[in-house]
Structures
1.
Amino acid sequence: MRSLWSGSIAFGLVNIPVKLFSAIRERALDFDMLDKKDLSHIKFKRINENTGKEVPWDNIVKGYEIKGKYVVLTDEDFESASPEKTKTIDLEQFVKLSEIDVILFDAAYYLAPAKGGERAFSLLQEVLDNSQRAGVGTFVLRNKEKPVVVRPAQKLLILHTLRFANEIRDPSEFEIKKTTTPKKELAMAKTLVEQMSDNFNIGNFKDTYTTKLMKRIRAKASGKKLPAPKAVVNAPVNDLFDQLQKSLTKPKSSGKKKKK
């Protein structure tokens, strides 16, 4: 597997050569954009707004506008802005993973030792695993600086890029009408949550939508006509107590484990 980046992890005076790999493999149906008239492919071109001519990739540069004029930046400009951050994942502190709000998590990557870094990498992986802590710091990838958290996982390290605090919208922006919850409803809701509680396992969740969509695609390709699906309408909550009561007496699905 080809690495996305190579550099080092640094904490204290320790430097560990590492390589960065994508941890995510997107699985989605690949749709093409077509002209409705004859189903021809739609192509997107990079057009010069002045000449109307297509511009090859080799002639495209990045520019930043200042007072109506563009400053053109090269790869060297991006790297020289802060060379240490483009080549180093600098861990500044170690924290409990539970202290980081999940809303901050962005992308995920695997870290593996580069040549010569195996021993120090194993040391960091083991000490993080034993201490139940994760390293937090900063890192520049694809010309963007991000806070990061590095945690141990199955003899590897996983790097999660995080969002900066100013990228998260303040919940106070949303006005929610305050209501008083009756004690009976609160007690029933707590019982329902407890009844539905179980250990989390992502393997229990399947992409059934894509499976059903693929079934419809194959049916259309073979000329078959599938029956129209029943419309699902979620009625507004009129009697919350009644809905809670019915939820508690609803039979459990056969695929769910009963919590002891």
Note: DSSP finds six helices and nine strands in the chain.
2.
Amino acid sequence: MRELHRAGAAPEPRALTHRAILAIAAPIMISNVSTPLLGVVDTGVVGRLPDPAYIGAVALGALVFNYVFWGFGFLRMGTTGLTAQAFGAADAAEVRASLGRAVSLALVVGAGLIFAQWPIREVAFALLDGSPRVVGLARDYYDIRIWAAPATLINYALLGWFIGLGRARVALALQLVLNITNMLLDAFFVLALGLGVKGVAGGTVLAEVVAAAAGLVIAARQLRVFGGRWDVTRLFQSDRLGRTVAVNRDIMIRSLALIFIFSWFTGQGAKQGDTILAANAVLMNMVAVTVYFLDGWAFAAEALVGRAVGEANRAGLSAAARMTTWWAAGVAVLAATVALLLGPAIIDVLTVDETVRAAARVYLPWAALVPLAGVWCFQLDGIFIGATRAAEMRNAMLISVVIFLVGWWLLKPWGNHGLWAALYVHYVARTGTLLYYFPTLVRSVAA
């Protein structure tokens, strides 16, 4: 294990190898795929019930939590970048402090979300369009799942910390604990006990708590290996805390803007009826599997770029960006091919409703080819997160939202095909805006 110390010069940077990239990316890809597979299982479980309203309810309920929880996704992304840079600089005290700040913030924010659950619910569902039956079921889902807030956010912080350290196998283990537990509980609560969407939400809450407890135990053992002790002064040191807040604030704005795009997509689908809403939900589960799979390479870029920044190693940054992106591009081609070939069978597994199946097959090519359009911005996200260039990420995403909305308005006459095309506009906009800032990022690191 790499030697760390409290302060001082980092060891000489080592040349990046494909084996080093795979050591991080492969476990993360496996763990990431388990996350959308949970959504697939949720959809498949409620899809056994012969009413598309159940699928639509889980889609809308999950959408609310995309805002409620992933708005605080900076607890994962910001922690990864800051931890990787501290690790690259061989600063053990800051590695420990990065975890402490993230977990403390997760507890505070999680408690606040539970306290504010009623106004959040009323505002969220007032903004979403759906049939009364779908919205009523989605509210039931929300009322239970909100209690997972502290555990969910702690899991974000832990995942970011372990990825920043390059401990991808630990991240894999925790994600598997979370998602396998969740899948089993969801299936039991819904199929065995007949609890419907309430069972899906309850299974998620219990699984988040189990995973958070396991993660904290593993983190405590890791810190004992690093040595040292908790230093409250270091934990809340004004300049370091200020940097953490600034990075997290900008990533939060960026995340909310991204979630807005997908929320808009879901909301516009809902306006076209329960069948289109359910069909898009089925297809977006397929998209999520491929996107999370590709994110393994983006996560590798986060850790390796962050480490290079901590080492003040521009050559290492360029190598990490280039090598991880080539791997991601190859995997994107494979993912799109598999999605096109197996898409009809996957649709049949996810829903028994024939009208939803037929609608999903019509729009399948749009979903299957998302990896080819999105892989470039996914990798750029990872590079910018590792370098903690959060302000540029924020600006790029806000510009991309405007471009997406213009694209949606222009493509609106083509119905759901136009809606999917607008999603592609968003991917192109994200890539272009981040590429604009990329040269500045590279120049910011010492040669």
Note: The first helix runs from residue 18 to 47.
3.
Amino acid sequence: MINIIAPINQLGYGIAGYNICKALDKYMPVSLWPIGDPAVTSDVQANYVKGLMGNRNMFNPKAPCIRIWHQHDMSQFVGGGKRVGFPIFELDSFNELEKHHLRSVDMIFVCSEWAKQIVINNLEKNYWGYNMEDITHVIPLGVDMKVFDGSVIQALSEPKPSSTVFFNCGKWEVRKGHDVLIDAFKKAFPDNEDVQLWMMCENPFNSPDENNYWYNKYNDPRVKLIPRVNSQEEVYNIMRKVDCGVFPARAEGWNLEALEMMACGKQVIITDFSAHTEFCTEENSMLVTIDDTEIAYDGKWFHGKGEWARIGEDQIEQISNHMRSVHVRVQNHENTYNKAGLDTATEFSWDNSAIKIMKVLDV
């Protein structure tokens, strides 16, 4: 048995928590302690989560416990087994609270080699004297290939909008490059009417004024604002209709949406920086070169602690050039199917995440 503490919802931690539980449950019983109330999307999922929570009644107190949550909140675990912290973070440094909590655990799981190096750079040892390099392990996140099935999309050749459709998914944030994406789009296509930019970026943590700022910034007849959907299946049904995902992120803890686009066989334009470098390469992505970093500041979530990628005029030009390239290929009816992306997504399955977890924990 293994004990898991994680949220269950449609945000990043919640998707990771649910899918890791589901993958591990194929090999051993999982006892789930949700963080907050589970937000499920179907009766089937509700019954499944209820079953995992029911295993808490007879949990194994000696089994490992994995806490999939923020690095500043690693104090609560279940039982007396190995305590594993699994944070998903975006920046290159930790504050003192984060360091204190990360040092307190027996083992740390991170999504990428980029993240592992940050842990090593910031924390030499934990409170029991173990070197962080020895107790920090890379457990890449995954994608549900039964939902995001690019081979089906290729076979169907279903009708899609006649325009070239670019897509971004992820809650409104400066960190995700939403402040520059619209500029790159307009720079690439100042007059074209046969292009669209679909933005599914609703942020439940924003105030009405903050949301209005983003709505006004993206006020263009070629931009389609899509409300947040309730399930991964609904996300897939949107992704299958677009041509290319654009992710000009300054920093990411993983970037699940980019991997999902690859699983759908779609083109991906993305910064060559932070955690998604674990799966984004020259073969499967149109990379945006990052020349420098800057202080991470947006006045809301980030206040100058740590650095992220600097997105300047050169990066905006690169994004624009990539978008124009995709548009020409689509309008010329050239094959834009991202076979390399689909192959990559197949390697990063949730089952592989579970197998790596079991190997590291020796369970």
Note: The chain has two domains: 2-142+349-361, 150-347.
4.
Amino acid sequence: MEKRLTWTLPKRSGRNATGVVTTRHQGAREKRRYREIDWKRNKRGISARVVAIEYDPNRTADLVLVQYVDGERRYILAPETLRVGQKIVSGESAPLTAGNALPLKAIPVGTMIHCLELAVGQGAKLVRGAGGAAVIQGFEGEWALVKLPSGEIRRIGSGAYATIGQVGNPDWKNINLGKAGRKRHMGIRPTVRGTAQNPRSHPHGGGEGRSGEGMHPKTPWGKSARGNRTRNKSKYSHKMIVQRRK
């Protein structure tokens, strides 16, 4: 771990600035240090060597520690095929090899990418989880059509940067945690079924014996839990979506 690129991650335990729980089932995790990651890849045309591949407790993907020729060290997400000792570079003329960052307009159709910017210069926002990869489907004027891991096809400015390859650690989803204690170390508290609660705590609660809900599934706040669409139909970026996820 490169200490200069880390700091202590404060515990929030699912609470906001006023101390109110806004995200349930969080708390009492182990101490962690946050690793500062280079999402922008803005050292254009300067090559870097992979020094180490490291575990990150704050995300599902692994990290790569790279050292540039000028001596600076940075963290990036680890692509699946990148190994210690290999070289990476960012820029419009970079080779199409795993770990290199290029603008979408310089990447051929059908190429797998990750760490994708939504707006030019903003830094990577999309496809950052373990095993994730998006695919460029084509180009439409100044827009690139990108198929995201969810199946959604979206327009993104062709000047936005993305990293070649698939995010590493694809077997993350197959890990069996093995015991409740490991879940607690991760900061995830137990979840109680709605039917086991009283009616003041959950819409499914109450009733004599083990009664079913007797109603459509609901969240604790009374919203439908049947998977109804919740996206705002007048959202500013709605026109960027060519095909919604299935």
Note: Residues 3-171 form a domain with the OB fold (Dihydrolipoamide Acetyltransferase, E2P) fold (CATH 2.40.50.140).
